[in-house]
Amino acid sequence: MLRGRRPPKGVWPIGTRVKVLPGLSWDREFTGRIADPSPGAFTFDRWDQWWRILTTERGTFRSYWVIFDEPQPDPDDVGGGVFTEAEVDERFLERLAD
Fold it and tell me: Which of 22, 46, 68, 70 has the CB geometry, 3.0–4.6 Å to 32, for a possible disulfide?
């Protein structure tokens, strides 16, 4: 875990305000902040910090954990619930002024 250390160059720090853009997972814009996953948050993989690098057949991407300002509907409508936080690909994030 990187707690207590400065993030690597180019990584947005915890607390950064962001706008989540429609696209890959979400169908509308909304805001939130970068944070560590909350205890008990559902994640497909273990998160040791607030960001990670994923390599797929489509390329290498950075994603962040974002806690939403307001709950968001399940983007796939599979779970039938709402999300209060989730992993978001940085290509679908816009940094907001502090």
Answer: 68
User: Which amino acid, 31?
Assistant: T
- Which pLDDT tens digit goes with each residue over 22-76? 987 888 999 999 998 887 776 666 666 888 888 889 899 899 999 999 999 876 6
Mind giving me the DSSP string for 80-98?
-SEEEEEEEEGGGEEEPP-
Looking at residue 34, its amino acid is I
Half-sphere exposure of 24 (CA within 13 A, CB side): 10
Question: Of 92, 33, 24, 28, whose CA–CA distance to 66 is shortest?
Answer: 33
Q: What are phi and psi of 45, to 5 degrees?
A: -130, 165
Question: Which residue in 98, 87, 92 sits closest to 65, CA to CA?
Answer: 87
Instruction: State how far the Cα of 26 lies from the Cα of 81, in Å rounded to an integer.
Output: 14
Question: In this structure, what token pair is assigned to residue 49?
Answer: 């910090």
